[in-house]
Design a protein that fits this description.
The protein is an alpha/beta fold. Helices cover 39% and strands 19% of the residues. The chain has a nine-stranded mixed sheet, sandwiched between helices. It is globular and about 50 Å long.
């Protein structure tokens, strides 16, 4: 495993992955610079990017990076590019990588080992749905999940519902039909059944999991419909997610605007686990984050 600081409060970790058959796999970690530099134990939040993104997507947006760096916990940003964090139709085992390899590695290096109350997971769009699936499919591993403008209907998607939005000069980070089926397989595939978030909730209702959902009012109509429908579904299952709608589209500017609310949600979820770290900060005479 190799480590280097790319900037104060920004650590790059490069490690092998047996699940992905890679000698070098990267993740980035953001945290309070002094705490991260000293390796202080802190709660850990995993943040999964949208389709076509990578770990740097978050830190290359100045406002998002500043908010994550100011949070009192660590944020771990893995990357899957145009795959999802699932074991997919073409055999890429990103769920195994995330759950069986990365979480134990981070527990040992940065977090509070074997303490689910000190772990959360979340993401944006593709990453938000993948985070929800990881939290529900692995009960007891994460205390909370936060889902920004998340693609909960991906397992049921057929064709290209974004075809009319594509065109010369338009940068649309939504997969084509072929790109989508490379991950999910054709309609009715085993992968679509296994990773359907509606079925996952019915199979193992996450009553102990803290859940946060949001959506931008200027997002694609399809995205607004799927997030609102999933929120109603969770309520019908007897769950109590925190839910927010606010201005913004399907981009990192929306994330920058809504991140303070999900970070507040995480602070409350991490309250008990954060107390030792905040006490240490106070004892050094610093202002608490």
């Amino acid at each position: 495993m190799l480590e280097r600081f790319l900037a104060p409060g920004l650590l790059e970790i490069v490690h092998p992955s047996a699940a992905l058959g890679r000698d070098r796999k990267r993740c980035l970690v953001v945290g309070p610079p002094e705490a991260l530099g000293a390796g202080e134990p802190r709660p850990v939040s995993y943040l999964l990017h949208s389709w076509g993104g990578n770990a740097r997507s978050w830190v290359d947006h100045p406002r998002v990076f500043a908010l994550l760096q100011a949070a009192p916990h660590y944020t771990v940003m893995p990357e899957s590019f145009r795959r999802w964090f699932i074991n997919d139709h073409e055999g890429w085992r990103y769920e195994d990588y995330l759950i069986d390899e990365l979480v134990p590695l981070i527990d040992a290096r940065l977090g509070l080992p074997e303490t689910p109350v000190a772990r959360a997971i979340g993401g944006f769009s593709m990453g938000g749905c993948a985070a929800f699936l990881a939290a529900v499919r692995h009960p007891g591993m994460f205390n909370a999940v936060f889902c920004h403008a998340s693609a909960f209907d991906a397992p049921g998607r057929e064709g290209d519902p974004y075809a009319l939005l594509r065109g010369p000069g338009r940068r649309l980070l939504m997969p084509t039909e072929a790109e989508h089926e490379a991950v999910w397989g054709p309609a009715g595939s085993a992968v679509r059944h296994e990773y359907d978030p509606y079925l996952a909730v019915r199979r193992s209702p996450p009553h102990q999991l803290r859940i946060y959902l949001d959506i931008g009012l200027d997002d694609y109509p399809r995205m607004k419909q799927m997030v609102r429908s999933f929120h109603r579904f969770l309520l019908a299952q007897g769950l109590s997610p925190e839910y927010r709608e606010s201005e913004g589209g399907h981009d990192l500017d929306f994330i920058a605007a809504t991140l303070p609310y999900s970070l507040d949600f995480l602070a409350r979820a991490f309250e008990t686990a954060l107390r030792p770290a905040l006490a240490m900060t106070a004892s050094r005479g610093e202002a608490a984050p």
